[in-house]
């Protein structure tokens, strides 16, 4: 059965070529296949990202409306973080089984708080009757001196990275370093905790505090917007870890036409996974659990210290986890774009996507 | 139970005020509550409209993928027609119960044709697993001399209507004429034909040709984009007839703070309704059936002839169906924003929205 990536590639990339002679194809800077599309509106650039969350698939059917709103918003904003862009506007397509006023009131209050926190305006949308589904479309602009989250210096100008001045999946070069922000495995751990399936596979004592942390990591993942915008002009490629570290690494590798070598021993493990007796499972969660919403990015070796410094400025831990290679150097392993090294590390069979 | 309009008004209008201090509220020219939002991106204006179609609610569960794609796209483009704006880009959020390749192939081909026809590029989206739901977000720009669909004269400049140069729901003035494009009742007639419920209420002989016309009216409604853009600078307010003539007239009346008097005898009936023996039902379909995707607009009396001429240029029939009044003149009928006159015409109890 086709994966989501294959579906998009096969069926929904028709506007990426100019084959159909669309009048506006020339004004699309980045089309289908990155974290956000980048459009040229007159002389301005606009970034657009859409995400759908389906009840029972992306969150449990009994999830609280407050949690659904924050998860849907933050997951979408994470796409903007991966582009190093500044979110500004939001449309909401909300499909609801019934007009539950209490549900709507809680969802709306949570969404309003999120919008205020991240400086986003809800500008439109559609409400329909049907199975509970939330689709957000976030729009925003590339970072500029004015919108820079890290540089208060008014004379600061964003280094020109590409025409749209945003991070892409396709810019990684042989010799670049591979980095990841924060820690890995929390998305999968939270998912297991919430669905309580973990008890079947592992003994896993966690404290109430860790339980709260994981709940927050799942329902209000922090979009790394400040880090993303700080990386514009520094990182050669970036993506957010949503599908799973290996799956997202493959997106970077294939779109940049390079190979990535990751060092399993260097991967930053979320503290809640430390008490998990099944280390194979812990590694699986880090490698393919997804839903971590950290930034995975590549940087020219010469800019190593820049990353160290800007991570400190932004206040987000960043860890060097691998290196980029030219595929020609790896003839023997042709076909495998992401290599995993480290003591006893192997790729899990299943990459990305967990469903309820 | 709250209606869709009440839900939006009550729960999702929080960014319309600047109460939350959102950084970007000032860059939202039109927010929640019009056919499309209008945003200011740098020095440019951007229009955004979102529409969701749910299987079994907005189209029958057994509808063909070709039809679902064209209906979803055209309904969304109709919002742009109502703003007099030029659609350029599209994102698709597609929720599917399974990866049916044949379904995807047909849906994708139909969408590609629609995009080519209307000059729209598919720039991004999300595909997820779940109950069949299609959400389109169309983005575009206000009409300019360059994009004008009716004026080939390169010296043509669009008359300045408002800061965003697009049609709004809120500009109708006492004394204006009320017009509607095309014919009414076809959306409801098609819906009845498709669901075959009409047999229970009426004897209704229609030809195979009429059947085909109604099928097309439902699954590929023609967005009145050329008419909409021609009306920029002429019409004082506009909306597309999606919820039902009376319901949409009320949107114009309440947002313009005026009263509308409609003449039932003047309403243009779709030819397929002529053979319907139940004239009460035919009138109900015209008044509250919805899904007609015609433009309902108001025009200053002095510009009557302009409408006649531009309708001819664009090739769309436009009919004068009423007049705009100051609510103060109608003290006796306070509370009713839309008055329906004409021989034996009365408002049906139910306004707007039909579900499967």
Describe this structure in words.
Two copies of one chain form a homodimer. With 356 residues, chain A is α+β, with helices and mostly antiparallel strands. Chain A has two domains: 109 residues, PurM-like, N-terminal domain (60s Ribosomal Protein L30, Chain: A, 2-Layer Sandwich); 165 residues, Phosphoribosyl-aminoimidazole Synthetase, Chain A, domain 2, CATH 3.90.650.10. Helices cover 31% and strands 23% of the residues of chain A. Chain A has ten helices and twelve strands. Chain A has a six-stranded mixed β-sheet, covered by helices on one side. A six-stranded mixed β-sheet of chain A has the order 8-10-7-11-9-12. In chain A, a hairpin with a 2-residue loop joins strand 2 and strand 3. In chain A, helix 4 crosses helix 9. Chains A and B meet through helix 1, strand 2, strand 3, strand 4 and helix 3 of A and helix 1, strand 2, strand 3, strand 4 and helix 3 of B.
Descriptive labels:
homodimer, 356 residues, alpha+beta, 60s Ribosomal Protein L30, Chain: A, Phosphoribosyl-aminoimidazole Synthetase, Chain A, domain 2, 2 domains, six-stranded mixed beta sheet, 10 helices, disordered C terminus
In short:
The structure is a homodimer of 356-residue chains. By secondary structure, chain A is α+β, with helices and mostly antiparallel strands.
